[in-house]
Every structure is written in structure tokens, then in C-alpha cells.
């Protein structure tokens, strides 16, 4: 399997498979993506004074297009787009339409400049768009690094739909790729969506001698969560009691206090009320992506089966709230509890070994079903609407004052922004979508979604999408007002 340079750039095109809206690298003839049939260009000589790709007008929004005056950095600078494959994606034509001097070179068709000086003499910005690592000439990573750091060239990266985990490829790169790793504003990281978890703990009479085991299980759950997650604890016997509301894991002191305060309540076992209430609490939370209940019990509820099954299925089917079962019982073959976990879209774990429980809770709370982005459309969250990168870009503001771009995306690559990088766009549940980073004399930007019309089809044809891409390109050019 080829290792791709993805949107995360040189080393990070290890995106999860995205939902393809347009069936490959191409768009409709009446959209900006129509230009994606554009053919590849060849390198000009360094003393060339003109190019068939050059345009006199600046990027969209220029006030002087009719006069042909140089009104923007973009109209004066040359952009090289490097791509893999047999045909060019047409990104250069899209940028040309918006007033940029851009051309595409397919790797393997033309020799690349062999020094950062010669690269900078020819081009003011390089875009790595869907580039496979093994197709880059040896040492080109070092050339790119010096091109940016020492000479002030701009670098923009964009990726493909590879299903190879980004962390697997990134972490597997050898010392010879150190320059590529250092160059990027992002580093490989699995997509970790925010999880809201309620522990629904049976403290009826039959659980009285298992309370310490319950506490160990609860502590194991807390240890398995990340800083973006929230956890609450609800106990029940005949009635339910909220021992700890959904609380950020960073505030673990209050969660630990609730764990220590758990004690057997005695009485019978009624599941349905607790399951329903836990679902209501999770449904009310707006800052979490996935919602999950973990029922900790020894089984044997004292109510009709159809009642707690109905509550579980309502949470799952109507609210998307999943539920798993940790069965603390000597008889692990409880088929009813197994069916209950299945009805909640979850898993059953059955054991009374504390070591087993700690391992299984970590496994449970990091299941892909609870962590991975599900492929549904979403709108990028804007970090700062006053940023020059958002100039001319339409957005809306929600009731909490958060700003979202108008066009939607349907996928992204997993990564984390480096500590000295600036996140411009993000998924509202935490993952970065566009990140920029000043490095020496230059600036590097990384899109973490494709730019050829797969998961980004609506983004690239919707209001503001192309404008943002143009703003990002302009920002990275030497001498730009943003950079």
C-alpha cells in the first residue's frame, strides 16, 4: 500500500476513509471543480519571464481586475502544485480562476529542483496535494525545510483518502524524514472525539459485597478517559440517585470523591428508571460527540424485561446513546444481559477479576465506535472570525457565540496541532482542520481534509470554501500581509 503525503502533508496523508460525495477526483462542469481535468505543467527555467499560467489579476475580491494592475501578492508570485497520479487534480486551474499564478507537476514526470535556492528562484509557494512519500526524490524533505525556514518560501499541504492510520505511517518514518516531521504544523494523532459517559451502578442488596469491585471499575473508567471527556455517576436500586453530574475529566477530584462515597443501598433492582434518566442527562449535553452508558450490575433486575429493554432501545434508536454492560457475577452466562447490551449497541463484559476489569474498561472506552468520527456532514468551527484568513468568508454564529463556516465537510485526517502552531479551523469536538505555523522566514499551512472534491465537495462549491482556500494560499506567500 502506498504511503501518501496527505493533507496533513508530507507525512500525514493517512486519513481515515472519507465519504466520497463526487466519486473520485473530479467535479461537475458547472462548478469550481470543473477545472479538475487540468493537465500537468512542466518546470520553467529559473530565468523565465513569463508563463502561460500567469494572470494579471489578483485573487477574487480584487478591486483592480479590469486595469490589470498588480493588486495582490498572489498575482505576482508563482505557485507549484506537486501531485501524484497519472492526471492532475485541477487545483491549479481552480486557483488560476481565482487569480493566482499556479501550475501542477506530476511527480515522476519532471525532475524537481535539487536545492532550496533553485526551488525558491522558481516558486514562492509549494503545495503538496495528494503526494505519495516514496515518489519524492531522496533528500527533498531537507530541501523543503530549508526552502521554508531559510528562504521564506510558503508550503501548503493537502491529503488523500488513504485508510492507512496516520500514526502508523508517521511514527514509522525513519531519521531521514526528520526534516519532514519538523516542517509540519501538525503531528500524527488518532482522532479522539469527546465522550460523555455515565456509569449506571447497581447498588442493590445483592451488590453489597461487590462495592469495592465497583469502585475499582469506576476508577478504571476514569483512568481510561481523555481530557476532553466527561463522566458522571448514577447509582440505583429501587430508585436512582445522581451521585456525580457529568463532569470534565480534568476535574477528577469531584469524580473521585463520588467514587469513594459509593455504598450499598439495599433493596431491589429496577433498571428502567436509571437507564431513562441517564439518557436524559446525556442528551442534554451539547459539548460531547458520543454519548455512552456503562451499566454495572450483577444482573437479575426485579421488573419486566420489556421495560428496561424499551428504555435501552429508546436511548439507542432515538437519541444515539449506546450502552454496555459490566456484569459482576459468578455466572457470566447471563443471556438476558448480553441481549440488553446488544439492544443498546454496546458490549457485555462479565468477570469479577479486578485486573481483568481494568483492562476491559480501557478497551471499552476506546472502542472505535465510541471514538471515531462517523462520516456525517459538519461545518468547520472558526477559531477567530477576525483573522485575515476569514476575510470574505461567510459564517454563522450559534446561540453560544461560536462561529461556523457555511459550507460543510464530510471527513478529515486525524492529527494534533503542534504547540507553536495556530489552529484556524477545527471540528467542533476537537480535531484541527486547518493549521498554520511560522517556521523561520516562512509559513507552513496544513489542511486536514481533501481539496479535490471527495469529502470536501460541498465545501469547495459552497459559499466561502474556495475563498478560504485562496486566503490560505495568499497567507503563505512571501510578503503577504497575513504572513
Structural topology:
Layout: H1 73-76, E1 78-83, H2 91-97, E2 101-106, H3 116-122, E3 125-129, H4 140-149, E4 154-158, H5 166-172, H6 178-183, E5 186-188, E6 195-202, H7 211-224, E7 230-236, E8 240-248, H8 252-260, H9 271-283, E9 290-297, H10 305-319, E10 322-327, H11 335-343, E11 345-350, H12 354-364, H13 368-371, E12 381-382, E13 395-397, E14 403-405, E15 415-417, E16 422-426, E17 432-439, E18 442-447, H14 457-461, H15 465-476
Parallel strand pairs: 1-2, 1-3, 3-4, 4-18, 6-7, 6-9, 9-10, 10-11
Antiparallel strand pairs: 5-15, 7-8, 12-14, 12-16, 13-14, 16-17, 17-18
Helix pairs in contact: 3-4, 7-8, 7-12, 9-10
Description:
It comes from Candidatus Scatosoma pullistercoris. This is VWA domain-containing protein. Keywords: Signal. The protein has 483 residues and is an alpha/beta fold. The protein folds into two domains: 262 residues, 3-Layer(aba) Sandwich (Rossmann fold), CATH 3.40.50; 177 residues, Rossmann fold (3-Layer(aba) Sandwich), CATH 3.40.50. It is built from 15 helices and 18 strands. The strands form three sheets. Strands 2-1-3-4-18-17-16-12-14-13 form a ten-stranded mixed sheet, with helices on both faces. It has a six-stranded mixed sheet with strand order 8-7-6-9-10-11, sandwiched between helices. Strands 5-15 form a two-stranded antiparallel ribbon. Strand 17 and strand 18 form a beta hairpin. Helix 3 crosses helix 4, helix 7 runs antiparallel to helix 8 and helix 9 runs parallel beside helix 10. The longest helix is centred in the middle third of the chain and has 15 residues. The chain starts with 72 loop residues before the first helix and ends in a 7-residue tail after the last helix.
